[in-house]
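Possible race condition, two jobs.
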Amino acid sequence: MTITSRAFVQSTTALLLVGFLALLGIVGMTFWLGERAQVYFNEVIEARDARGAAVDLRTAVQSAESSQRGFLFSGNEIYLAPYDTATTMARRQLETVNRLLASYKGADVSIQRLTALINEKLAEMDRTIALKRDRRDAEALALFRTNRGKNLMDEANIFFSGLVRAADDRLTTGVGEQQKNAALLRWFSIIGGVVIIVVVGGAASTVLRYTRELAAARDEVGLLNAGLEERVQARTVDLAKANEEIQRFVHIVSHDLRAPLVSIIGFTREFEDNLKPLKALVDRSGAVGDAADPVMREARMAATDHMPEAIHFIRSSANKMDSLINAILKLSREGRRQLRPERVELADVITKSAAAIQHQLSEAGGKTNFHFDVPPLHHDRLSLEQIFGNLLDNAVKYRAKQRPLRIDVRAQAIEGDRICVEVSDNGRGIAERDRERVFELFKRSGDQDQPGEGIGLAYVLTVIRNLGGEISMTSDLDRGTTFKIVLPRELHVFQS
């Protein structure tokens, strides 16, 4: 059905009005939730301050009490060194607690009683110390043994515990309300965003349809169909060739790669089964046999530690290879893997990638250092694992033999809602003449003493660009290399 100019103007105006109202609702809800969050934030701050003041007050009184007891039992003035400071701090914190809790309903009686207890406790300690200084030890000891001071402190501790518990409850409530606010804002934003997307999509569809109809009215059908059959045939031939290459690649991956992988997994399982009787035989020999026979001791270590560890690393590596093969198969079937953004902790991704090479790293006497200062990302987890797995593997592969390997990974947030990750090593480095081509496919630099096809960094570059990021490199020959990766914190996937 043809769209008239009047219908086009009316429909687009209505859609834009709906989108504007949705946007206005999101802004209003955001402002309201922000004000509400500020209220709970202030309550959390007050509760935190009250809790800290109560804890400091209890600590100060306990410190003064310890100083008093030390002086009463030893008579040495050195025990009174912290006493004045502690009592001064106690009185100051008592005033702070009274001030912070003055606005709370129902707290008047409790605060008055706590104030009386603390003042009476301080007076009792001052009295015993004065008697001791006047050499009236018997009176001081008699006053101390009445346990009046202990009873006062025990009752005060009940109030302290109540204050701390009440503050903790307020903190928990405040945090819970903040989370509810965040959830409400998130859902409202999602709903509003969906409405806006629908509106924009409808408007775009209307505009495109109207434009297409105008173009169709202006152009001749003969001009549009000129050479169409030839182009279709050429595209069909190209598509057939591309499909043939994809099918051949799928065949190689699914048979030539998966077959030996299945054998590795199967033989690993058989190796593990055969290890059980060896472990039983070693266990039967006992610790006495280890002391008498060094070979038996080495066999025990191999059967209980080294071989199970080796089996574990083989299996984990085989599983990792299997997951990569599955990803490649899916890529070949779909033409391009669909990115799936999810909440990702970057530290978790990188540390797991480092754990996968821990065996090689230990053999090289290497060490990894991590420093992460980034919030959670919204990204494709598999892509991140492939990026940092390749970079860490390269650091181990191209290490300098003459020194222990050191790998430093630093991540921080930068302007533009992006993150910057630097992966540095003290390996062999890259010569200046090779730095321009390390990201090219099938290009390798330096001594070719390590296995590889030269696709790692080229693949990393492709994946990073697919995520909307960029990568750069600095390197000094025989000193090390640093890769700098910049990525958006939020991965946006647009589907046609």
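Job #2 (started ~2 s after job #1):
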Amino acid sequence: MEIREKTVDRNLLLELSGELDHHAARKAMEEMEMAIDAAVPLKLVLDLGGVTFMDSSGIALLLRARRRMEALGGNLMVCHVPDQARRVLDAAGINRLITIR
């Protein structure tokens, strides 16, 4: 799992690529937390376009991002979700909690 970050003003874009499974999720969560702490964004965009596989660990990552952004008074958007990851998110009903484009 690789995460690239871009910050403009108080907007943070995190581009994830690779497999987001149990093994990668812990490191991805740590990197995401550090990026949020550094940027203190009002808007966080998670770009999943490069994710090749995602399991329920990816759901945990998205929910943690949502909680962090709510605590900061900001919002979260997820974009470019590949088909396999979309099926995982749809099965869990995540689209009722998080904006997915």
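The first helix runs from residue 22 to 39.
Logs attached separately.
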